Amino acid sequence: MAASPNGDGRVNSRIENYTEFWQKDMHKEEKADTDNRVDSYTDVVNGYYDGATELYEYGWAKSFHFSRFYKGESFDASLARHEHYLSAQMSLRPGMKVLDVGCGVGGPAREIARFSDVNITGLNNNEFQVMRARKYTKKAGLEGQVNFVKGDFMKLVEQFGENSFDAVYAIEATCHAPTWEGVYDQIRRVLKPGGVFGVYEWCMTDDWDPSNPSHKALAHAIEFGNGIPEMRPLAKAREALRSVGFVIEHEEDLADRGDPIPWYYPLEGDISKAQTTWDYFTVWRMSWSGKLVTHTVLRLAEMIGLVPSGTWKVGESLKVAADALVEGGRTKLFTPMYLVISRKPKEE
Ligand SMILES: CC(C)=CCC[C@@H](C)[C@H]1CC[C@H]2C3=C(CC[C@]12C)[C@@]1(C)CC[C@H](O)C[C@@H]1CC3
Fold it and tell me: At 251, is the secondary structure helix, strand, or coil?
């Protein structure tokens, strides 16, 4: 597909077509719709991130993931702690060669590089995000330690060759893959024997029942709002890791820890739950009035050509995302933090 004339890596037609991949009424979704999204995952995911990236950065942070909260812990500190926790669970050591699969604009890669003294390659199939990741990393003076490559996570071996990395991690990214078996197998192959893979996976939990129409509609709303071809159950992720030859060393749904402040609290837009003074503004942006301001400005920006056409429509899907994720969190039918640490056996 040709790049748009503005040269920022975004393609207007795929932003405009993004919402067409789902039925307007989530209860009318059929298997054929899912199959179509899975087959067209590159357009689904790229269309979504071409439209959503600037909103993410404005409304959230440069680390595109959720996190757990201590009482009194700021939003930014909590995001960083979630990244440190993954590095610690993976036992990342100075000098290791690490791959970040689906690196967004590189927030986690920069933080983990500093925290663990490792060298990181960030892989992302979205040109717009790769360009931004490089810009922010240069600004942070980390370009000697963190680099970014545009590529498809279903073709890692083609890109990097077998046995290339000491460790691989994926933070809330591999849910965008057409199949978990496919992406996990690629990850295992680019890992050196004995290498470690750490993942925070987005899954429907064991309580989710696909034969229940309202559970199914919830999964589709999460897909639609977050650029995911197909939401899948947690057991399937575990099964996929094992089936491609990983040995699971640790697994836990961190959303199930019973934290007094839930992971989805910022999305509720309830400013009385903000944990620090600075966070009032962050949480306000997700309140109804904050969203009204943002999305009105976005609509105007699109009208005068400051953002590609279709961006506002993708922005509207983010409102669906917020509601569905909060519902999934409250009902515990969904988790964005199924943590799994797996190892590629030394001998296969
Ligand atoms: C999509 C995946 C797999 C990961 C991204 C997780 C989160 C960073 C995003 C999920 C829903 C997003 C929303 C926003 C920011 C990024 C997320 C939390 C907004 C707060 C951005 C500003 C808009 O006005 C409202 C959005 C709601 C959803």
Answer: strand
